[in-house]
Amino acid sequence: MRAAKTTLKHIRRSPYQSAAAVFIMMLTFLSITAFAFIVFGSSAVINFFESKPQVTAFFKDTVSQQNIDSLRSQINQTGMIASTKYVSKDQALQIYKEQNKKDPLLLDLVTADILPASLEISTVKIEDLGPVSQLLQKSPYVSEVVYQKDIVSTLARWTNAIRIVGISLIVILTVVSIFIMMTVIGFKVSQKRDEIEIMRLLSATNWYIRWPFMLEGIFYGTIGTIIGWIIATGGLLYFSPYLQTFLQGIPVFPISPLFLVGLLVGELVLAVFLGILASSLAVLRYLK
Fold first, then answer.
1. Rounded CA separation 193/286 (Å)
2. Using one digit for the tens of pLDDT, what is the confidence trace for 278-287?
3. Do both 79 and 174 map to the same domain?
4. Which residue among 102, 123, 147 closes a domain?
5. Rounded CA gap, 178 and 232, in Å?
6. Which residues of 10-49 are buried (b: 16+ CB within 10 A; e: fewer)?
């Protein structure tokens, strides 16, 4: 109780410094929350594309069903395949009719005999598309291999770049927030240097002296985290209709409330740790 009252007194006596510490913590955890949303969304997008047929191998007309089954078994044994789907000539014709049902002229010109059978393949990872495609191209049974190499490769590069930039930004802001909290709390400790010396002369323990400043660091971290999380989550909910339109059916939304609450709890744990770390470092020099 005494430590809490002392902490509130410290905060009231220097509101501008306290606001600066809360602001930098808010920026840090706003960035962490936004980065978590980006990683979650990009992972959902990649998983969506990974679940779709990403490579299509068209077979030659002379290939037998036994040859197709042999090739299918061969690629499944690579460990890179999530699923395969065989599309016969008749099934290809049905797909063609569905896609061109508004143009009867095109339907009259195409029969099942001129459409190739194919194998639609999904890989476990996007990075596996290249090796699987090369394996199929080498097969004597395959006439053509089609996959959206540029789109998939660009998606993977952008996702990796976003993660690198996001992690770098979070590390920088975390270090800055620790230094700013150390500066704010250190300044307050220096103002109470004489009081601390008297307390030490009265046999006060280091923990007794340290607790009010540690609670102050926890306060800055907790308030900054909650504000940053609210801003980021509110922004996500506000823009979610526009994002859903942009993503066009990719199942990113709605985001589970459990994920949002779990993210907040994790950030609060991190904020408490940073607050304790910064305040402990600030007070340490005066307790030697």
1. 8
2. 777 777 765 5
3. no
4. 147
5. 21
6. bbeeeeebbebbbbbbbbbbbbbbbbbbeebbbebbbeeb
Which position has the token pair 């602001």? 23
Q: Are residues 123 and 158 in the same domain?
A: no
Q: How far is CA 85 from CA 76, 98, 135, 267, in A?
A: 12, 18, 17, 43
pTM over 0.85: no
Same domain as 157, residue 35: yes
Residue that finishes a domain, picked among 147, 166, 194: 147
Write out pLDDT tens, residues 174-232: 787 777 777 777 777 776 666 666 666 666 666 666 777 778 778 888 888 899 889 98
- pLDDT at position 287 is 59
Torsion angles phi and psi, residue 202, rounded to 5: -90, 15
Q: Give the domain range for residue 143.
A: 55-147
